[in-house]
Amino acid sequence: MHKIIILLFVSISILIPVTAIASSQILNPYQAVVETSLSHRVKALRLFEALEGKEVLSGADLDALHHLTLNQLSLKDEIAAFIEENQHLVEDAGVYTEKERMELVMISLSALLLRYDNYLISYINYENNTKLRQFLNDPDSAYDIPANTLSDMTNIYNDINHRTDVQDMIDFYNENIQAYENVDENFFLYLKMMIDQSPSYIHGFKNDTEYALGNLNSSYTSTLDLGEDALTLAVNELSKTLGNTAGLVETRKGKLYDDADVAAHMRSVIKAGDILLEKTPFRLTDKLIPGHWGHAAVYIGTADELKDLDIWDHPVVIPFQEDILNNKLIDEALRDDVQLNTIEHFLNVDDVAIMHDRSESEEEKAERIILALRQLGKEYDFNFDIETSVKIVCSELIYVTSIMTDWATEELVGINTISPDNVAVKSIEDITVFDITLLYHDGEEVTSDKKVEMQRLIEEAEEEEE
After folding, report:
1. Can you tell me the distance from the alpha carbon of 345 to that of 161, in angstroms, rounded to the nearest whole number?
2. Hey, is 272 helix, strand or coil?
3. Could you count the other beta carbons within 10 Å of the beta carbon of residue 189?
4. Tens of pLDDT along 177-224?
5. Under a CB-based contact definition with an 8 Å cutoff, are residues 254 and 280 in contact?
6. Residue 391 class from Cβ within 10 Å (0-12 exposed, 13-18 middle, 19+ buried)?
7. Cα dist. 222→3, 225, 235, 243, 338 in Å?
8. Residue 97's pLDDT is what?
9. Which are the contacts of 21, defined by CB distance < 8 A and separation ≥ 6?
10. In this predicted model, what pLDDT tens digit does every residue of 261-274 receive, in sequence order?
11. What is the DSSP string of 319-351?
12. In whole angstroms, what is the distance from residue 293 CA to residue 280 CA?
């Protein structure tokens, strides 16, 4: 099979599933840059895997490479600004309290590590491929792309002075972070998770050998020829905490991860068209999301179910028949795009719930599934705006497909959005419409009244945020 690229997140986020973000925090400029950068990272990895063995690049391939470069350029200055704005605070607290100083330094450090990790995880692949490296270093006036875009990234990555700066910040962080171990603020925890799960942070910057070709890159490049079955092991060589999908920062695996009994139980309960909710408190993205639930998705159903609904041979379904036959049955908006994934992929979680709409007809269900499949391939909407159609966020997938339901929404800074908890609350409010057919919390199945437990989880999350 083709060579496999390490798909880290910092989700580093890559298995991420990459979940929806909706709260007053969603417009935090730094978090928006981070999430967009992680999305670009995943796309860069996917593109390299698709192109690395091609003898001749098509026009579409060249266009995709140009847009890869434009993605990098679009965030280059913003990431640099976050690095430079507070980097000096390592030496002098200035007008800030020690807590404020620590948080600002963490922003600069995490931005530095983000830049290094982006190169290590995705762009170094292009540097090591002669054809792709030469193309990405060529200027193109049609796209307003300057010369040496990739070389500039490589030079920054290898610059000893830059590595000295980041090591100074890491030393400051390591010497002071224990004083804040009881801080329970989401943004602070978000920054801490970004830093702690960065492969560049884990390996350090004290080695004087050339960085890209030395200790850190050696463990990475040695994985390029590994098969798919070794992907997780390859990722673990770099960091035991990383997932296998290039964007998710996760401190551990979910409590339901790789549990065959839970997967089998879920298959016995779930039905075509059901809504899925999940909670991943161990992931970076969870720190961005208000409420209890962090992600929502739609279960498309098996081939037999789609045949029973008389839509297996529908023109919208036909392009995805192979994926469906390979058990990719969950339609979800992740950081890189809207895609189909398996139940096993989805179950890297602590909590999961299934909502079943028992009010809709078979015809309505079929139409909703077709509408969900029409969303596949759309980009993730980092503005979380439900009134746009070009891009989409995970809970918006429910909003735009379950069109007969009156979903609650929120207005944030002039943008109308919907959170996973806005979806979940319907299972409590509309008891004549939605059943909760399965609920796991903290890795354990809830066998008591599921609606009562759902209400408790939502209310406790609301109280914590007040």
Report:
1. 41
2. coil
3. 14
4. 999 999 988 889 889 989 998 888 887 776 544 443 343 443 333 333
5. yes
6. middle
7. 11, 7, 11, 18, 31
8. 93
9. 31, 35, 285, 288, 289, 382, 384, 393
10. 999 999 999 999 99
11. GGHHHHHTT--EEEE-SS-EEEE-HHHHT-SSE
12. 8
Q: What is the pLDDT of residues 256-309, one digit of tens each?
A: 999 999 999 999 999 999 999 999 988 877 777 778 999 999 999 999 999 999
Distance CA 255, CA 347 (A): 9
Q: Which residues of 31-56 are buried (b: 16+ CB within 10 A; e: fewer)?
A: bbbbbbbbbbbbbbbbbbeebbeeee
Q: How far apart are CA 327 and CA 304, in angstroms?
A: 12
Q: What phi and psi values does residue 277 have, to the nearest 5 degrees?
A: -125, 150
**CA neighbor of 399 nearest in space, from 415, 429, 375:** 375
Q: How far apart are the first and last CA of the chain?
A: 51
Scan for tokens 């972070």, then name that residue. 177
Do 242 and 250 meet the contact criterion of CB atoms below 8 Å apart? yes
The two counts, helices (H) then strands (E), for the chain are: 20, 11
Domains and their CATH numbers in the chain: 24-238 (no CATH), 260-465 (3.90.1720.10)
Distances (CA, A) of 311 to 170, 298, 301: 55, 16, 11
Q: What region does 417 belong to: left with phi over 0, alpha with psi -120 to 50, or beta? A: beta
